[in-house]
């Protein structure tokens, strides 16, 4: 069987769906192929924060020493599971080579500008498409219980101020006044007023709704298996027992990008960074503002009908287990910061793989050897935050229009792809 399409979007996560909405609004026909349920994987179970405040890259001075210290701690916020994995070893070497202030500052400048644009784009998409996803613009709070650790974070306001991202220091009393859900152990915090949050499962469900309403098709339970080339064009893909073709193809396959990209000669330096979350019914004293419990790296977000603890970073390949040690660490961490750290009933325990690049920037741009292929992957921990602006960039690249944001720093060409 053969299905012909205008634009074929590979991947129905938050990035693929946002690309589809923008392409449909521009008058293109779109079919999305998704290996599971649309928006049902990594896009669904994260904490839903929209964070220009995350402009600083994960690679920074001191990170290698911290990672080595964590090696023997199975519940550490950053964990590398011991195993033989040459691809991960090479990725970590490149990552370690970036743990210096010069590279840190350069990456923060690029990422910060992109995230500010991303924040505006997402708010506009939610407003213009009337997406019912619990979007609120209350900022975030980064909270500390250790005064010395807070003092050692002085690099953060300097880095964000350098790229025009607002951040405000608060003492413990001011932090608790702003967020009464915090307990008396909090000594200091940063308020990031430009941040926002939403309920991610509803956001992706709303994007999928708009794709269908705008005339697009979403084909679920249809994993990409094989690519067909025709000269310098992707002539089609085999998926779900059919051959699908598209005038243009958008590659938004998230953490599955490396293996599938390799089948068409794409060398995508992406590792799956595993994150976890626990969702509860909303407690009586839930935070109004999303929180990051900094010493424990636990993110806390509440909505009208739910409450979630999440985060951690685990490089364990595509391990499909729910690691009880790491889930329990989320709860222990929240107990140190919150007056009411758990809801009355645990609704779901979850994990998902984030597509992590070693330079902490997404891969958005045309593939070098395939003139009808646009890549939109490698968004790391910020897929929701970057979804709308990535959709805009992909739309402009497909249409041959001039983007509002210079995509050159995000181009796959930086990896020779």
Describe the structure.
With 417 residues, the protein is of the alpha/beta class. The chain is 31% helix and 27% strand. The chain is built from eleven helices and 19 strands. The chain has helices spanning 14-25, 63-70, 86-96, 101-128, 147-151, 155-162, 172-178, 200-213, 257-262, 324-337, 383-399, and strands at residues 2-10, 30-33, 49-50, 78-80, 140-144, 168-171, 188-192, 196-197, 217-219, 224-230, 233-239, 242-251, 270-280, 291-293, 298-303, 306-315, 346-357, 363-366, 373-377. α1 packs parallel to α8, α1 (14-25) packs parallel to α11 (383-399) and α4 crosses α11. The two termini are 31 Å apart. 52% of the residues are buried.
Architecture blueprint of SSEs:
Layout: E1 2-10, H1 14-25, E2 30-33, E3 49-50, H2 63-70, E4 78-80, H3 86-96, H4 101-128, E5 140-144, H5 147-151, H6 155-162, E6 168-171, H7 172-178, E7 188-192, E8 196-197, H8 200-213, E9 217-219, E10 224-230, E11 233-239, E12 242-251, H9 257-262, E13 270-280, E14 291-293, E15 298-303, E16 306-315, H10 324-337, E17 346-357, E18 363-366, E19 373-377, H11 383-399
Parallel strand pairs: 1-2, 1-12, 2-9, 4-16, 5-14, 12-19
Antiparallel strand pairs: 3-8, 5-7, 6-7, 10-11, 11-12, 13-16, 13-17, 14-15, 15-16, 18-19
Characteristic key phrases:
alpha/beta; eight-stranded mixed sheet; 417 residues; single chain; nine-stranded mixed sheet; 19 strands; 11 helices
